[in-house]
């Protein structure tokens, strides 16, 4: 059956065959990483870094499902959420946390992870607040959800504030909270990816180049940052395909799709992480 003629997989169901293939691929990548470690090609720290990258990628993927994304309809006040795409919004929140966490890596890893999480949450909190300020004071539109009749957190009713012919507009309180939580978890996950790469490169790159750590520290930080940003974008795009359009936040029915995205993210993060770690493997000439 062709891709055009096939029935699209909607809802939150997990395809059994797809999940089985994903698990096999994940175990295969982990097996390769562990085999390289046993063979002495990878240091044990690199294998632990691979695990950290996978966990960080899964956190990033989960966090994106919490962020309220309205796309073009939100720009016209016809759907709740922030008027941009899933990938752009998730990348903005996650990268803000990642940059903060990278700056704090010089202190300690718990401080860096906490700083990254707060950085992502702060960006989303400010963004969500300005979205509602724009809707309420510039467009004269109250925040209203089109997915639920009552806000799950405040109990405020929604239908009487929703304009006819729309899916809602603005950011209800539950969407605001979801956005902040998404930024918090995404910033934490992005920082974890960076720190995992940084840890592996801290020993691998000096050994590969035959020099001391201080001489190549700018290179270590730069390469770890580049790969971390790339992996964050990989997971953000993957999640965008899973959401397919707009999402209001944790109360949206599309939120229930996150398990299958996390499975796919584990495979994508494992493969990306393995490739990123292979650059510290010496190549005989």
Automatic annotation (TrEMBL):
Record keywords, A-Z: Cell membrane, Membrane, Methanogenesis, Methyltransferase, One-carbon metabolism, Transferase, Translocase, Transmembrane, Transmembrane helix
Pathway: One-carbon metabolism; methanogenesis from CO(2); methyl-coenzyme M from 5,10-methylene-5,6,7,8-tetrahydromethanopterin: step 2/2
Biological-process GO terms, alphabetical: methanogenesis, from carbon dioxide; methylation; one-carbon metabolic process
Catalysed conversion reaction: 5-methyl-5,6,7,8-tetrahydromethanopterin + coenzyme M + 2 Na(+)(in) = 5,6,7,8-tetrahydromethanopterin + methyl-coenzyme M + 2 Na(+)(out)
A Gene Ontology molecular function term of the record: tetrahydromethanopterin S-methyltransferase activity
Top-level taxon: Archaea
TM stretches of this protein: 16-38, 45-67, 79-99, 111-138, 173-195, 216-241, 261-283
Subunit structure: The complex is composed of 8 subunits; MtrA, MtrB, MtrC, MtrD, MtrE, MtrF, MtrG and MtrH.
Protein known as: Tetrahydromethanopterin S-methyltransferase subunit D
Biological source species: Methanocalculus chunghsingensis
Gene name as annotated: mtrD
